[in-house]
Structures are given as C-alpha cells and as structure tokens.
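Researcher: Going back to the complex we discussed earlier. I've cleaned up the inputs and rechecked each line, so this should be the final set. Can you rerun the prediction on the complete assembly and write out the structure?
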Amino acid sequence: MRIAILSDIHANIEAFRAVVNDFDRRTDRILNLGDLVGYNANPNECVEMAKTIGMHSIQGNHDQAACNPIYAESFNIYARMAILWTKNNLTDENIHFLEGMEESRRLPCGLACHGSPENTANYIALPFQARAILKKMKKGVWGKTNICLFGHTHKRKIWRMDVRKKVTPVEIPPDGTIWLNHEDFYLLNPGSVGQPRNGDPRSSYCIFDTEANSITFKLVEYDISSTMKKIVGANLPEFFAKRLLSGT
Amino acid sequence: MTKMEGLKKKGKLKDGTEVLLRPMVKTDRKQLGDFFGRLTPSVLQYVRNDVTDPKVIDRWFDQLDYEHVFPLLAIKDGQIVANASLHRVAHGWRKHLATIRIVVEPVFHEKGLGTLMINELVDLALEFGIEKLMVEFPLKAHGALAMFKKAGFSPRAVIEGLMKNSHGKDIDIVIMVMDVAVYADKPR
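Model: Rerun complete. Updated structure for the full complex:
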C-alpha cells in the first residue's frame, strides 16, 4: 500500500491542491496528521477538499482550538488571533467535521498523531524528546508498532532508534527516499504542506510504501503569491504571508 | 479592526488580577512615557536605554519594526504596567537567537506578571523560528533570577564586574539561556 502522508495544511488551499496534484496514480490512501486549519485564509476550502478526496485526518491543536476556543488560551497572540478568525469564518458543517477527527490513532502502517502520541500539543523537536517517545514505543505503550507518524513542528524529520537503543536523526537523501529497517523504531514527520518551516518554501509531504518499507519525502512548488494576497486580504497578520516566502 | 488590534490576550496573575497582553503600537507613546516616569531611579538604572530622555522613546516609536524588536505590553486599567521585548538579528550567526528585556512596575513584582510576559515571549519566539533565548542582568537581582528560572532559563555564565551601577560600583552579570523547543509546549 502507498500512503500519502500530509500534515499542517493550515488552510493553505493553493499548497494543498498542488500536493494532491502531485500524487501519482499508485497512491492508495491519504493521511493527514492534523492542523487542517489555522494561520492561513482558506479553512473552509481545505476542509471541503479533505472531504472530497476522502483524506483520513488526525486532529491537530489548531483544529481543536477552531472547535473550542478554550484550547486557544495557550496559543501565542498571533496563533490565537488566527484561530479566532478561523472559527468565525468556518461553516458549522465544517466545524462539525473538525470535531469528528480523532486525536491519535493506531493504523496498520503505524501510530498516527499530531504533536506526540502523548499530547496533541507536545513537540518532538529535540533528541531527548524523540528518545522518550521511541523508548515508550519499544516498550509497547501504544501497542505493537515500530513507526510513529507525527507533525506539529512543520519540519520534515526522521528519528531512528536502532537495536542498541541509540537514537539518531536520519539524513534525508537528495532523492528523498529512505529504506526502513524492520528491527528499528522510527518517528517520522512529513513536514508541512501549508506553512513549511525547514527554510524551503515548497510544500512538504511524503509517501509511505508499506510493502517496500520505504519513505519518500516530496517537495512541491505552489502559487505562494496567491496565498499571501489572501492572507493580507483577510486582514490576518502580514507575518503569516511573509514567512511563506522564506519557509520559516 | 486593524491587524495589530487583534493581537491580544488576557492573562491572570497569582492574585487573580487580570491584565491584557498586546504588542506596543504607535498610539502607546504617551502611556509608555508615563510608565517609565513612574519607575524609581533604582529600577531605571538597569534599563538599557535612557528612558528619561523623551527622544529615546520617540525613536522607539519612529522605528517600530516587529521583525527586529517585538515589544509586548501588559495593560491594567488602561495603564502600562510592564514592558518586555524580544530582540532579534535577521542574519548571520545570531539568527537563531533572541534576547529578552523586561521591566515590570514594582507594584506588580512577585505577582507572576514577569513570568506571564516571558512565557508569552517564549511562545512567540517559537512562532518566529527562534531556537534559543538569552537574557543578562545583575547577579544580585534575585527576583529576576527566580523569574527566569521558572520560565525555563538556566544560568550559563557569570561575568564578574562587567557592568557598573550609577555610582560607578562594579556589578556582576549573569547570562541565562533557554532552548525554546524544550519549554514551548510545557503547561504553565
């Protein structure tokens, strides 16, 4: 099975469309690791597209906050402003769709979550954070699985724990393909579709081939200027528009 | 509603007092002058700029650039009661690093206002892609030391006699640093 893994679309319909158009015909399933909305100006369009393409979605912290603003209390003032705008602009039907998403789920291909399997808003960004989750995976805290798919950081990344329990980041080669080892444990982040923060403005996602046991990271160009104009037109902070150009 | 007016949130202090946190905007010029005017010389001596000079404050407002310096205010009953700022360098070897400066009105000391503002700046630093935060202040400022420790900073260096107070006496300085990603998602 070939699964397209997306995360952090963040209401960027131009980026979302470009990524979906990039899938090849052999893509069997589409999985979203959360934050379909927030920051950018097309939340309804992104939810509608998620429904249309039958994308399986995990709930992110911005999706949670769009449904219930109590979750926005812990957001910084920029993210909070954007999510309140989002809530005011989402249709009731689309809020209902976001409410129906699961926080995390064990799938045949691995464990899927937004921030970490422990909490939607937690980050796996530093080695000690990755090590803590990988150790729990090895102990079977979330059932028998050696792959955890996560998002939230907006940065594509693979962490591996080998049989000696050594945790290291795996370098992504120029062709983007990494072959996984059945004995090792992995944390895999596809990066962000709608607001990448790797220093590359292109949309980031990956294809997980469960038969070949490989991950292929993909980068896709999209119409950034259209997205930027919509952000400014919606009276959202210009900072959200500018950061898309630099991918930060 | 302008874009900057939407950037705000309420915060609660230890004693239940509510304050409003928001970025400083051009129309805050008079209020900021009043705030610094209420501070005593013992507090003002550690403020980096001569805020008793109106031209200094005028220059801040003339040069407002949130990508370079992000100024955050705490407002209570229409008055500024604290001023904190995140200072960034756009290019080079300090691009991932920002420094914090903070001044809290003494009436609000030990009420959790400083910690509230630092926590907000930590969250903003993560949003801006900042990886490390740094702060420096006199080693004997025990309140500041406790406040920054609580916010997740740890002391990395003490430089003896680096600064001088208004009477020319040497002051030891402590430098505290934090990794933003470690503390950004911690419940506070």
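Model: Worth noting: Residues 41 and 234 of chain A are 7 Å apart (CA to CA).
Researcher: Good, that matches what I expected from the previous run.
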